[in-house]
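Regression check, adenosine-5'-triphosphate case 240:
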Amino acid sequence: MSGDVLLEIEHLSAGYSGVPVVRDLDLTVAAGEIVALLGPNGAGKTTTLLAVSKMIPVLAGDIRVFGRSIRDRRSHQLPREGLAHVLEDRSLFFQLTVAENLRLGSPSGRPDLERTLEYFPQLQALMDRRAGLLSGGEQQMLAIARALIAEPQLLMIDEMSLGLAPLIVERMLPIVRRIADETDAGVLIVEQHVHLALEIADRGYVLSHGEVVHQGSAAEITSDSAMLESDYLGNLGETS
Ligand code: ATP
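Current build output:
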């Protein structure tokens, strides 16, 4: 892990129709580290990721990706510069095959499948299957694999576990750890399985009502039983 700071969010306000739902948020992600963004429904986690991708405007504060403010950049430029964002809905093309979906993730149209399939070997046998026919877990693997094809330096994954059986989530989160370790990408994950997320994360931020109410190393948050059982995380920590 080189430790270069890849994402710096400073005093961010972001929201919808000019109304902030995230306020005064500070957050960083360095190369090779996994940062978990935690908190109850509606806390502003997805909104934060959307602001980093410039899919919604920054109302106040600043976001720097790879050392440069995103103020003068457009959302379609950021993926080419090394930012990948796996959206909550996974955004797959259901009518297209796995291979075609992967090709669409490649800037050159010629994806380096070998490297990506090292992380998700299960996709190899599914190359000709339509994405819409995959199981939820396979679709999530495909969504992350498609993001990896572009060899991102900064990877954001929103609710990877949404709709997945806990067993599948338990298998997939360590793969995210491997990706961070082996590619030195910085990873920002929004995850409802708090305990599992903290097992693979280096640091975490807890959001509530659009504000950071707690932050620290994953070990600190894990050992803070009052925090884990609080209203912020208490109903989110179930792993089964
Ligand atoms: P969840 O697990 O529910 O997705 P979250 O922490 O990701 O939680 P956000 O999706 O960021 O929460 O939502 C934060 C707030 O912004 C919520 O009150 C939500 O209703 C509101 N919100 C989200 N999307 C929109 C939108 N497109 N227009 C207006 N308000 C929105």
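Comparison notes: The mean pLDDT is 90. The CA atoms of residues 15 and 47 lie 7 Å apart. No diff flagged against the previous build.
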